[in-house]
Design a protein that fits this description.
about 725 residues; TIM Barrel; Rossmann fold; Immunoglobulin-like; 17 helices; about 25% strand; globular
Length: about 725
């Protein structure tokens, strides 16, 4: 049945395994759309959450056609929970059949229907019983999802265990969507972002930033926020709300500063949508190891259960190690390898897809004979294959002895030579196969080098453009990073782009052999983009590094605080000699206030002789917009709340204005304490982070406002 149905939507779900059912469903829309899209850019399929839909009337016929034997005599084994090898093999065949039916009867049918109307399809394959890589690749825009909240050691980043779910998002899970897009030559990879990021009304932009950065680093370049409801104008604050926590609507007290987050995402996406992905490694995902399990029937590949189906696998451990040490990679499926070709020694999985230098086959117990044959075919055509361990067996139940013999014969036909350092090599055609447990050593041997910039603690993703490469760098460590990093790219010039502020400048960089060394400075929580170009960058001002800080000046005195908007009541103006949370103000109504307040102060700058000045707001709950001498500096919406302000300062008297927005939490707490009704929905499913009844009356007040200390630091003039 439809879960949480809208009015008029109650009833049975679609049979995704049945092409006739899918076609009948789509035909209901034909009279509306005809052969046009009427402005609909893309048709969207949300995460596959069709639990227990593990059969369709044509399944026996489809199984016989696809697997080569009759399932009907094995129905008792199919419903059995016995943990035998034959039952696991039978269920692997059953699951492979279901995967193919979802792909062909639903995903491709629906995509074909949309293409007839010149529209795109956007699909969240996760949650389905199919091979995620093939399902993501079959649509125009694969879409992953960030579900839950990750831990980042960024100083000051709030993460209360009571306000987060017990499942952390994992960027490796997101790489299934980006890999499906890359392997099929699709430029856009989207993400439903911030699902259940935290408890209702407590989500800050500072919490959003590293979470969306994880998505970017995993190959996402087309961000969508978690869905929100349309709310009629006559519905009182907070309006109609969606159950899954994030509420990025005009009712949100952070809304006046929402542009800060949006601009950051837009700048970053503009780079990550340019050119093409630049990943050297294609890594085979051994889906048959996942399918070959005796428990249950269908196996849904969900975001919520990665601790069960992904994290314990050798595949995951190998991928995580490679990414952490600086390798760029995509995942590939059996179908992708069947369609792959070799171009100039590189592997290409589709005509418009980027190429990979090496195919890595991690430890896989089960592998079809056809997949192993395709791997050997690629090697013979000139590809480089690195195999961690030869497959032990074939999957499935039918014709088992014959298929086992074929796989064994293929493996035995490879005459490996011992190359030392734990490497065995086999030359075939114009390519080669390396068999080793030491994957980094094998990659080094074939000329695929890691990006050593990860040694500094940086995370990265690369894009290849005609004039060079883009590097997107993020510092999610607990400490500032100020160092020179090597890039695996020869670049006469490197331009630093700051996606937080929009600033740009020419970096200090020099070529050493076939690498480029670049100096970078990133505070904990900051990101930078490097544009490493093969042609000199002309007419670009040098990037101002922040070196040799002069004396730090704390901006203090009497602050004028004027509340500009919010509720339940707008507070009276305040004069503050010390910066404190609004919840500590003498006015008791301030404890319930959610909205914005503007702080103003004048201070004296004796002289202006530094190369650059840095304004640091200290602690901010939760976002700030800054003006200096009536010129807007920008929105400081996340940790660290810092901005370069040299161009706005003048010697002598200066006026600083800081508008701060807090969370919705304190006002909602007040409403629940006063038993003011605000849950007005067709279906009352507004639950807390653990899907229990929601009650904000027991919360403690959330700190709000500018807490500081606010400082101004001068830095030496740049040496040219």
């Amino acid at each position: 049945m439809v879960k949480r149905a809208a009015p008029g939507g109650v009833g049975f779900t679609l049979d995704h395994l049945n092409k006739d059912a899918v076609t009948a469903y789509l035909e209901r829309f034909n009279p509306v759309f005809g052969n046009q899209n009427h402005g609909v850019r893309a048709f969207y399929n949300d995460s596959y959450e069709v639990y227990g839909a593990d059969w369709t009337p044509s399944f026996l016929e489809e199984f016989r056609k696809r697997r080569g034997y009759d399932l009907q005599p094995y129905l008792r084994e199919l419903t059995s929970e016995e943990k035998t090898e034959n039952i696991a093999r039978l269920k692997a065949d059953y699951r492979e059949t279901m995967s193919e039916m979802v792909l062909e009867n639903f995903t491709r049918t629906w995509t074909g229907w949309a293409h007839q109307r010149n529209s795109l399809t956007k699909n969240q394959a996760h949650g389905s019983p199919g091979n995620l890589l093939d399902l993501y690749a079959a649509v125009d825009i694969p879409e992953g999802e960030t579900f839950g909240s990750s831990y980042f050691p960024i100083p000051g980043l709030r993460r209360d265990s009571a306000d987060v779910r017990n499942v952390d998002p994992d960027p490796i899970m997101l790489k299934f969507a980006s890999s499906g897009g890359h392997a099929s030559g699709k430029n856009l990879v989207s993400s439903e972002t911030f699902t259940w990021l935290g408890e209702h009304f407590k989500n800050s932009f500072s919490q959003c930033k590293p979470e969306v950065e994880q998505a970017f680093l995993a190959g996402v370049n087309h961000v969508f926020y978690h869905g929100v409801t349309y709310s009629p104008e006559d519905v009182a604050w907070p309006g109609w709300l969606f159950y899954a926590s994030l509420n990025l609507t005009p009712a949100n007290s952070l809304w006046p500063h929402f542009r800060g987050l949006n601009d950051y995402i837009a700048r970053t996406q503009s780079v990550l949508q340019a050119g093409k992905p630049d990943n050297e490694l294609a890594i085979y995902w051994p889906v048959y190891d996942f399918w070959n399990q005796p428990e249950g029937r269908e196996r849904l590949i969900t975001v919520h259960a990665i601790d069960e189906w992904l994290h314990p696998t050798p595949f995951y451990k190998q991928v995580k190690n490679l990414m952490t040490t600086g390798y760029s990679l995509d995942f590939v499926s059996d179908k992708m390898l069947a369609a792959a070709e070799v171009k100039n020694g590189n592997i290409q999985t589709a005509a418009t897809a980027p190429t990979h230098k090496v195919l890595l086959v991690p430890q896989a117990k089960y592998m079809p004979v056809s997949t192993f044959e395709n791997i050997l075919k690629l090697a013979k055509a000139g590809a480089t294959i690195v195999i961690e361990q030869m497959p032990e067996d074939v999957p499935g139940l039918h014709d088992l002895t014959n298929r086992r013999q074929k796989l064994k014969a293929l493996i035995n036909s490879l005459a490996f030579t011992n190359a030392g350092n734990g490497l065995q090599t086999f030359k075939t055609g114009s390519g080669q196969i390396l068999l080793t447990k030491n994957i980094p050593k094998a990659l080094e041997t074939v000329g695929v080098n890691r990006e050593a910039l990860t040694d500094a603690g940086l995370k990265f993703i690369r894009r290849e453009i005609p004039e060079g490469k883009y590097y997107y760098l993020v510092n999610h460590t607990a400490k500032p990073i100020d160092t020179t990093i090597p890039l695996n790219s020869e670049a006469p010039s490197v331009v630093i782009l700051d996606p937080q502020s929009g600033r740009a400048g020419l970096a200090i960089a020099n070529k050493v052999q076939n690498k480029t060394n670049v100096r970078v400075q990133l505070q904990s929580g900051e990101a930078l983009i490097l544009k490493a170009t093969t042609t000199p960058a002309n007419n670009i001002t040098a990037w101002q590094y922040l070196d040799n800080p002069k004396q730090v000046q704390e901006i203090k005195g009497e602050w004028a605080l004027h509340f500009t908007q919010g509720g339940p009541d707008l507070l009276a103006d305040q004069r503050l000699k010390q910066l404190v949370s609004w919840t500590a103000l003498p006015d008791k109504k301030a404890e319930a206030f959610s909205g914005t307040g503007a702080y103003t102060i004048t201070f004296n700058l004796p002289n202006k002789n530094a190369g650059e000045y840095l304004l640091d707001l200290g602690k901010v709950n939760e976002s700030a917009r800054v003006w200096l001498n009536e010129q807007e500096v920008g929105i400081l919406w996340s940790i660290p709340f810092r901005a370069r302000v040299g161009q706005y300062l003048k010697p002598g008297k200066n006026t600083l204005k800081v508008e701060v927005a807090n969370l919705m939490a304190n006002r909602i707490r007040y409403m629940d304490q006063q038993k003011i009704e605000w849950r007005r929905y067709h279906e009352i499913n507004f639950v807390n982070i653990n899907y229990k009844p929601f009650d904000a009356s027991v919360w403690k007040p959330m700190p709000s406002g500018l807490l500081g200390p606010v400082t101004l630091t001068g830095y030496s003039k740049q040496k040219q």
